[in-house]
Design brief:
It is a single chain. This protein is α+β, with helices and mostly antiparallel strands. It has one domain (about 1-35). About 25% of the residues lie in helices and about 20% in strands. The protein has a two-stranded antiparallel sheet with strand order 1-2. The longest helix has 10 residues, at about 25-35.
Length: about 45
């Protein structure tokens, strides 16, 4: 599972479905590559 939250602990993105051991980069790449997936925005 991959989850991101704001500093005040409100979840803004959750990607369930990854079971067992997996490399963090693989989960992140999957989240970014989905049609309505994670959008990385700089400040």
């Amino acid at each position: 599972m991959l989850g991101f939250c704001t500093p005040d602990i409100h979840f803004v993105y959750v990607l369930p479905g990854w079971e067992g051991s997996v490399v963090d980069g693989r989960v992140l790449q999957d989240a970014i590559s989905r049609r309505y997936g994670l959008k990385v925005q700089g400040y």
